[in-house]
């Protein structure tokens, strides 16, 4: 909970300890000024135009081609997109990607949601849920009868990431929620069949859109279910998304600014070296943040296992004598925003995004600002 403004300690952070950009939120995330400038330059002939015409369809094509290059997708993989965000995709997947029974890894607020959606679907068998405590992640287990394994690359609420690997001996599809991971964490496309995400995190755009990198096996599953006669609402029909995506369009009108901002960010990544470059920026930021926390004497990374610590979302616990809520409030009062922890986790901590658009030097400066605040509060 953020203190009332009158309860915020009156601490001024010196200018040399203020990052060049004060946005460290877990999403919506920092949008680069260059993205905005590119949108403004194109606005007169792009915004307010038909999404069925070449001006917008070419921008969608830039997104799809750019993502194919960024993730080095194998032959046959396709980039799908439609409206609604990741929450919408979970519902769509219960209709069009799971045949009968799925397995879900649950290790935080967001990784639990797909399993919840599958459990509520009356046409599906009860899903298998494998759960671990916040700050850790479980492992997928190859199980007879499972036709889809649902993994989460990065748990946004806790700052836990996991390596994406197909479960040994598994025969079902592997679908990965990559909402806060895509673009900021490395991944091998051979290890997934559907890698889906929204663009408001590493891709520095707005929400309301989902994108999915789909293998031939995933496309085949979508087409098989569509042909089976299963009732699927039109808005949630993944076959409709396949057909429209191949035309570089969406089923209904998308937010044009969102697509433009996304295209700019994808091309920025690719122009500088692709996923290795963008993930490398987040990796440098994470090294700075976690090293500072471990050496601070009053803070520590919430995720105990270094191999499970996220490079895109850092969660930092503070000793009881220091109120992290006050630190976040002072930061906000000085223009450094959205460092509060995930509300349902209920810990004395800060949550700091380290998406590729965030400068690693700004993460280092933020650490210095926190040191200053702690000293002033002591």
Keyword list:
378 residues, alpha/beta, Aspartate Aminotransferase, domain 1, Aspartate Aminotransferase, domain 2, 2 domains, 3-stranded antiparallel sheet, globular
Question: Gist?
Answer:
The protein is α/β, with parallel strands linked by helices and 378 residues long.
Could you characterize what this model shows?
- With about 375 residues, the protein is α/β, with parallel strands linked by helices.
- About 35% of the residues lie in helices and about 15% in strands.
- The chain folds into two domains: about 130 residues, Aspartate Aminotransferase, domain 1 (Alpha-Beta Complex), CATH 3.90.1150.10; about 230 residues, Aspartate Aminotransferase, domain 2 (3-Layer(aba) Sandwich), CATH 3.40.640.10.
- The strands form three sheets. A seven-stranded mixed β-sheet has the order 1-9-8-7-4-2-3, sandwiched between helices. The chain has a three-stranded antiparallel β-sheet with strand order 10-11-12.
- α2 runs parallel beside α7.
- The longest helix is centred in the C-terminal third of the chain and has 22 residues.
- It is globular, with a radius of gyration of 21 Å.
- The N terminus is likely disordered.
């Amino acid at each position: 909970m953020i203190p009332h403004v009158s309860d915020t300690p009156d601490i001024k952070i010196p200018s040399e300890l203020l990052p060049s950009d004060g946005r460290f939120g877990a999403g919506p995330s920092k949008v680069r000024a260059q993205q905005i400038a590119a949108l403004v330059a194109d606005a007169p002939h792009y915004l307010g135009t038909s999404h069925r015409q070449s001006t917008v369809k070419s921008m969608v094509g830039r997104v799809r081609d750019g993502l194919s290059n960024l993730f080095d997708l194998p032959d046959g993989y396709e980039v799908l997109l439609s409206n609604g965000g990741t929450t919408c995709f979970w519902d769509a997947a219960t209709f069009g990607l799971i045949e009968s029974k799925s397995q879900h890894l649950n290790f935080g607020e967001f990784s639990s949601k797909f399993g919840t959606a599958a459990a509520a679907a009356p046409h599906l068998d009860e899903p298998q849920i494998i759960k671990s405590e916040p700050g850790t992640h479980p492992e997928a287990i190859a199980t007879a009868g499972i036709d889809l394994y649902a993994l989460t690359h990065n748990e946004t609420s806790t700052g836990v990431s996991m390596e994406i690997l197909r479960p040994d001996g598994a025969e079902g599809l592997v679908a990965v929620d990559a909402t806060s991971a895509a673009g900021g964490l490395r991944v091998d496309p051979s290890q997934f069949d559907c890698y889906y995400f929204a663009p408001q995190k590493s891709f520095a755009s707005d929400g309301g859109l989902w994108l999915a990198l789909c293998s031939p096996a995933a496309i085949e599953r979508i087409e098989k279910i569509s042909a089976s006669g299963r009732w699927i609402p039109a808005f949630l029909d993944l076959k409709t998304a396949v057909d429209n995506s191949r035309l570089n369009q969406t089923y209904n009108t998308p937010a044009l600014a969102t697509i433009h901002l996304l295209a700019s960010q994808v091309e920025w990544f690719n122009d500088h070296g692709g996923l290795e470059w963008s993930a490398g920026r987040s990796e440098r930021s994470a090294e700075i943040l976690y090293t500072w926390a471990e050496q601070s004497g009053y803070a520590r990374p919430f995720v105990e296992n270094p191999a499970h610590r996220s490079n895109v979302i850092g969660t930092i616990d503070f000793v009881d004598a220091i109120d992290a809520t006050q630190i976040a409030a002072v930061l906000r009062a000085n223009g450094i925003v959205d460092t509060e922890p995930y509300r349902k986790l209920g810990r004395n901590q800060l949550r700091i995004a380290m998406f590729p658009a965030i400068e690693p030097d700004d993460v280092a400066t933020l650490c210095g600002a926190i040191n200053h605040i702690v000293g002033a509060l002591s």
